Amino acid sequence: MVRFLLARPIAVFMTFFALMVFSFIVLRMLPISLLPPIDVPQIVVKVNYPNASPEAIEQNVLSNIREGLITLNGLEEMDSKAGSEVGTIRLTFDYSTQMELAYIDVNEKIDRITNSLPEGLTRPEVIRINTSDIPVARVQVIPKEGVDEIEVSLLAENVLKKRIEQLPGVSLVDINGKKERIITVEPNEDAIRALGMTQQDVISAIEAGNSELPGVSVKDGQFRYYLRLATRVDTPSDIESLPVSSPNGAIIPLGRLAKVSYQAKEMLGYHLFGEKEALVITVHKQAAAKMNELMPELKDALELFREDYPQVEFDLTQDQSNLLNAAISNLQTSLLFGGIFAFGVLFLFMKDYRLPLIIGVSLPSSLLISFLVFYFFDISINIISLSGLALGIGMLIDNAIIVLDNITRKREAGLSLFEACVSGVDEVMSALISSVLTTLSVFVPLVFLSGISGALFYDQAIAVTAILSVSLLVAFVLLPLLYFIFFTRSKKAEDSGENPFFQRVLGLYERGYNLVFSNKGMAMGLFIILIPLGLAIAFILGTEGLPPIEKTDATLEIDWNEPISASENKDRIATLMQAMRGQYQKAEADVGVRQFLLFDGENSIQQSLLYFLFEGLEEKDQMLNSLDSYVRENYPGANFKLGDAPNAFDQLFSSNMPFYEVRWKDLTGKEPIPEEKMDPWLSEFPTEEWERGPGLQKEASVVFTLRADRLATYQIPVDQVQEQLSRLFGSFTITDIRRFGEVTPIRLKESEARFEDLLRSTQITGSDSTFYTLGEFVDYRYEDQYKFVTADKGGIYQSVLVTENNPDELAPDFIRWGADRNMGVEMVGQYFRDRENIQQLIGILIISVLLLYFILAAQFESFIQPLIVVLTLPLGIGGAFVVLLAAGSSLNVMSAIGLVVMLGIMVNDAILKIDTINRLRKDYVESPEINPGVALEMAIHRAGQIRLKPILMTSITTILALIPIIFSSGLGADLQRPLVYSVIGGLTLGTITAIYFVPLAYWFFVSKKKLKEG
């Protein structure tokens, strides 16, 4: 094939040129995003039920929804949580489920259930989770002093949101912190009673004044007119002018009986920027959009907003494009240093400037053509796919060096330029194909991991496959063609003598070779001992998901653990920020219930999330200590968590699932077990290391009890008392004014007085028109009630979170403890999911090693020789572990990727070494004057000399290209550093392994059988 293509250099060159042109066009079309658009198989149903207790939300709403959704296709788990005024149901599906159809199915079922839900309840929100739902940035909208906050909310909703949505690449704009205008009616109880009237008379007058006749029309000859009632109201003054009839027939303007005014709707949540109330607009990008083009557009739009709306201040926070820019910067750095060091090392070893130039052309060519594969597999340019390309660059340089060195060696052996190019490629072709296949056999099976990890590995696997496949195409076609073109004018073959530098390196190698082979048994024993010693370091190393990143931002999640209002929550957060003033650069807080459409977390009035940005790490550490002390001293009962601000990776991989949770259900009833019975049982729980789960957490509450005996005595209907209580303590909506999509509620004003005073001061009318005090018919008491009601597919459960080191050992005791109390017990949590993932990973790695073995067995036509390659892997892994331990790093996603890169290069070197020994041995054995034993020694020794240069060059160029990352700073460097440690450690020991262990193992494992056959 190579001979055929080299005979047509212009056709081949133009074909590659056309491929690069198409690749460049495709590159401009590819979407650029932070993460692949992965469909997380979860859907969240959110319910807002104002003034409802957790028990009411569970009984009246969530239980009905769960029953309606239980039959969904592919549904694996369903968990619900009812709190004060809010409830959520989280649906988890199998990864094979088509989430578009599941989302439609959930919405259809919710529509059917709606009729069975309480009247006046807004339709439950259905939220589908996707990686593209993670906002790329947050726009802060801060009203200046004296500006009406409601007007700013209308500006944000009606103007800013629409202008940002018009930017190319924006899919959704979400807002939190909006304030809404309502009309409040504050009845004058004294005036109403003096006229012998009731609140209901005022309410009825407003309802009548806002009524309309939809669909009513009159005929006037040949014309038809639709009727509109002229009594319809629009403003508070319209309402105050409405007539109210008294019992004696007098008509009184409503304004004499009640005060009507515009007010801001009571907020369940706020947003703060610094100490000021503000709004936040989160910007979400389209899956096919380019983030590097979207962010400049957004920043330009903010500049226009500052000019157009001077009454408002704007700021941009939590820009997630920094992660993507770091990944692109790392790839550029790898290419730059890879090219520079490849040039330097090649010149040092080969002393010919043309060889580095050839690599300089082939490297970017391979990368560019790889993007063509991205296009056909519908892969975006994101952090995951870019890391896949970065993995392949080491192998790409490796293949290029091997091919160029082999062609040069053939030319030095006396072959013509054309024959050297053909023979040099043909000789290593099968070995290079095998090395690429073995690398893919280690990496590609990871795609079959379940969960998000497997979905993310898909993009990486495609990227690695693309660049390695293209690297083979370039190595077999473009490199020999370029070599042929660059060296056409060199009439003579190069001097076969090595340059002085490599001669010294060769001398060192010879001394080491003689030392190893003169003490074969001792050397082999040393290598064998190193294998378990190196792997044992894994038990010392710490494990984590992502490497620790030096972030200059942090978050504080706080639950006050008290039944406070949203406004009190806001005041506490503002006071906290004021106390920390000057210690942070920027700060924002989402307080209470968040209004985001796509927010899938827990909404609670008593919770807040604060975000802080600092100038440096020192300032960050100081303030985190101050925050910790402040909260502990001022709010000892609060639950809080301080930590680094999550980036897109953290948000994607974070799980709401507890580590190990023991759940139980009462087999005799369908409600939570009362605390007076539960608390003694918990004192006998099999372990003392546990925390209360959500279903066991308590909060103070007030319980009203209607006095039925007195109601019967005074002939007062129960519903009348209930109606009066709902008006006093609830958001009682009289009616709504609807105008072109805008809804303005008319509500009774809620009193600011204590509820005990309201019970004593509020009066109701008996059957004899006598007024009675409401408190005479209502008793109240303070009680600690369960804060949440939790349920799953099987119904209501309660739970504890076990913090034991080996919790599963106590599983029989947990089950026995529940059975003794007539409860069904089950254990769930991240513990079981992690164990399942580890089992899957072990199975996949076994499959990977078997694939690698089968490929090499086919390559070498031997069952023994592939074992030599397999034995090199633990040595390289051990070397990587040593450097990770010395550098204070851990086993994480990035160091694991580094292991894959390193193993790919190691396997490549070992395969080529064994392939060269086999070929030379065959050549020597065919010579009649050489006996088989001598042929083996000669083949091993000569193969070591031939492959020393490419092995050293590939290892040195890879290591030198990565060293600058160790001394770099920033997000990208922090992410890549564990990968660099793995590669450097593995390749350092791996180079020694390829140079000395492979020939030594060949001698021990292959020689005797071959000699007998010989």
UniProtKB/TrEMBL annotation:
<protein>
    <submittedName>
        <fullName>Multidrug efflux pump subunit AcrB</fullName>
    </submittedName>
</protein>
<keyword id="KW-0472">Membrane</keyword>
<feature type="transmembrane region" description="Helical">
    <location>
        <begin position="383"/>
        <end position="407"/>
    </location>
</feature>
<feature type="transmembrane region" description="Helical">
    <location>
        <begin position="841"/>
        <end position="860"/>
    </location>
</feature>
<feature type="transmembrane region" description="Helical">
    <location>
        <begin position="357"/>
        <end position="377"/>
    </location>
</feature>
<dbReference type="GO" id="GO:0005886">
    <property type="term" value="C:plasma membrane"/>
</dbReference>
<feature type="transmembrane region" description="Helical">
    <location>
        <begin position="461"/>
        <end position="486"/>
    </location>
</feature>
<dbReference type="Pfam" id="PF00873">
    <property type="entry name" value="ACR_tran"/>
</dbReference>
<dbReference type="InterPro" id="IPR001036">
    <property type="entry name" value="Acrflvin-R"/>
</dbReference>
<feature type="transmembrane region" description="Helical">
    <location>
        <begin position="12"/>
        <end position="30"/>
    </location>
</feature>
<dbReference type="InterPro" id="IPR027463">
    <property type="entry name" value="AcrB_DN_DC_subdom"/>
</dbReference>
<keyword id="KW-1133">Transmembrane helix</keyword>
<feature type="transmembrane region" description="Helical">
    <location>
        <begin position="428"/>
        <end position="449"/>
    </location>
</feature>
<feature type="transmembrane region" description="Helical">
    <location>
        <begin position="951"/>
        <end position="973"/>
    </location>
</feature>
<feature type="transmembrane region" description="Helical">
    <location>
        <begin position="521"/>
        <end position="541"/>
    </location>
</feature>
<dbReference type="GO" id="GO:0042910">
    <property type="term" value="F:xenobiotic transmembrane transporter activity"/>
</dbReference>
<feature type="transmembrane region" description="Helical">
    <location>
        <begin position="331"/>
        <end position="350"/>
    </location>
</feature>
<feature type="transmembrane region" description="Helical">
    <location>
        <begin position="893"/>
        <end position="912"/>
    </location>
</feature>
<feature type="transmembrane region" description="Helical">
    <location>
        <begin position="867"/>
        <end position="887"/>
    </location>
</feature>
<feature type="transmembrane region" description="Helical">
    <location>
        <begin position="979"/>
        <end position="1005"/>
    </location>
</feature>
<keyword id="KW-0812">Transmembrane</keyword>
